[in-house]
Every structure is written in structure tokens, then in C-alpha cells.
């Protein structure tokens, strides 16, 4: 997980929150993206040595992934499951989120806003504002292959819980006068209703706009879709623009 600051627009600052740990550890592949860019990981428990416990193996695998020393992979080695489950459900994941959102809130509080309607913030949806942890728990946190059909069925339930640290950030942004936009790779035609319902029932109300992947970007990478959408926002000459979400690989 990392925070990055960058310029956006003529005067603005962009604030980029990369929520990478969950995404990388679970080998996230969403919305029917091509499976060709991913292949099975060749890691095995035996290669880690018989005297290394599963938690240590998970730490080693995580480091290798974060250092980009692991080739393309579709599933997380099952030996990593205890480590990931402990990280995700034992409190560390939420503590990491809280630290980053506290950093962002400190930055937000320092911004001198003119309240002229020209300040915008862009948030990703999945595993930024609302969590899919319950879906991934059922897939052994990525040890089972991603199932796009099951994932869409999960989304359609509209029960993804809010990530409270981000909800707190969201409410602060609204109170400070930011126009908040959501950008998601979810399909506009099939998932808009469930997404709107889910955001509302988790407290994400009063936002400016929810931008979903429309037919023009169907089948294209999330990178291109989200990057072009964000660039369009910049061309609208927003004064201050921040964004939070995982990198769009
Ligand atoms: Mg996301």
C-alpha cells in the first residue's frame, strides 16, 4: 500500500491512494478481463523449505510479489492462506487503511478551498469504498481462481460492506465541499443499479457522479478506461483533484 502525490490541472494536486496489498495477494481479475495476461504461479511449499511455517511463506511470497520477482500468476499459493487470512481479518489490513486515510485527511485539511465547485475527488469503488472481502474469503483469498460469474453474482446482491476508514474520508471530503466522483470498472448496463444501491446502503450518498464502464470500453483494460476517464475530468479544468484507488493494471 502506498500513497502518491502528483500534480493535476493548473494548480491542483492529485492524491493517489494505492490499495495494492489486497489486490496483489488475491490476484484480482475482475469484470471478465482476458485471462491471457495471467498464468499459474509456479511457487510451491516445498520450495520454501520444510522448516518454514505457512506464515513465513506468506511473508516471503508477498515480498517477492511486491518486489516484482514473481512471474505472472493467477492464484495465490494455498500455503499463503493462513497469512492472508490473518492479515485481512486480524486487524492489520484495517490499521493499514486507517493510517493512509489519516494521512489523506491531514492533507485535505490543509487545502485552501475556494468552494467554487471546482474541487473534485475521484474514488474507486471495489475494495476502496466497499469491500469484497466476503467474496474473497469464500475463494480462499485468491487461492481459488477468480470466478467472474460468481463475482458478478456477489456484486448483484448489493451487500458489499463499507470500508469505514474510506467512508470517513468520503464524508470529510463532502463536508469540505469536494465534488466526489466514483469510477469503477463495473459494467454500466448490468451492474449500475446494484452498485448505486450498495453505495447508498453503506452511506456513500451526496456524491456527484458514478461513472461505470460503458459499452465503448467493454472488453478493454481497466487501465485505459479509468485513465481516459480521469483525463477527461482533468480537461474539465478542475482546480483541485484527488483520487483514491488501486492501481489499474
Ligand atoms: Mg478497486
UniProtKB/TrEMBL annotation:
Keyword Signal set for record: yes
UniProt entry tagged with the keyword Repressor: no
Domain of life: Eukaryota
Keywords noted in UniProt: Signal
Region Disordered, annotated ranges: 229-249
InterPro entries on file: Acid_phosphat_B-like, HAD-like_sf, HAD_sf
Signal peptide bounds: 1-27
PANTHER family tied to this protein: ACID PHOSPHATASE-LIKE PROTEIN, PLANT ACID PHOSPHATASE
Name of the protein in question: Acid phosphatase 1
Amino acid at each position: 500500500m502506498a500513497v502518491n502525490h502528483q500534480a493535476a490541472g493548473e494548480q491542483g494536486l492529485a492524491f493517489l491512494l494505492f490499495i495494492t496489498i489486497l489486490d496483489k495477494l488475491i490476484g484480482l481479475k475482475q469484470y471478465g478481463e482476458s485471462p491471457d495476461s495471467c498464468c499459474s504461479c509456479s511457487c510451491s511449499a516445498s520450495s520454501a523449505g520444510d522448516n518454514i511455517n505457512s506464515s513465513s511463506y506468506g511473508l516471503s511470497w508477498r515480498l517477492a510479489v511486491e518486489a516484482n520477482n514473481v512471474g505472472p500468476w493467477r492464484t495465490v499459493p494455498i500455503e499463503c492462506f493462513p497469512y492472508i487470512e490473518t492479515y485481512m481479518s486480524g486487524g492489520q489490513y484495517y490499521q493499514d487503511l486507517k493510517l493512509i486515510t489519516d494521512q489523506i485527511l491531514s492533507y485535505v485539511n490543509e487545502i485552501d478551498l475556494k468552494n467554487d465547485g471546482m474541487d473534485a475527488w475521484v474514488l474507486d469503488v471495489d475494495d476502496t469504498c466497499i469491500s469484497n472481502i466476503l467474496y474473497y474469503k469464500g475463494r480462499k483469498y485468491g487461492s481459488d481462481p477468480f470466478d467472474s460469474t460468481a463475482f458478478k453474482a456477489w456484486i448483484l446482491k448489493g451487500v458489499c460492506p463499507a470500508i469505514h476508514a474510506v467512508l470517513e474520508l468520503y464524508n470529510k471530503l463532502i463536508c469540505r465541499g469536494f465534488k466526489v466522483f466514483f469510477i469503477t470498472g463495473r459494467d454500466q448496463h448490468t451492474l449500475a443499479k446494484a452498485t448505486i444501491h450498495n453505495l447508498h446502503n453503506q452511506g456513500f450518498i451526496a456524491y456527484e457522479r458514478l461513472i461505470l464502464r460503458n459499452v465503448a470500453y467493454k472488453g478493454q483494460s481497466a487501465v485505459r478506461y479509468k485513465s481516459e476517464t480521469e483525463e477527461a475530468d482533468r480537461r474539465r479544468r478542475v482546480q483541485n483533484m484527488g483520487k483514491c484507488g488501486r492501481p489499474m493494471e
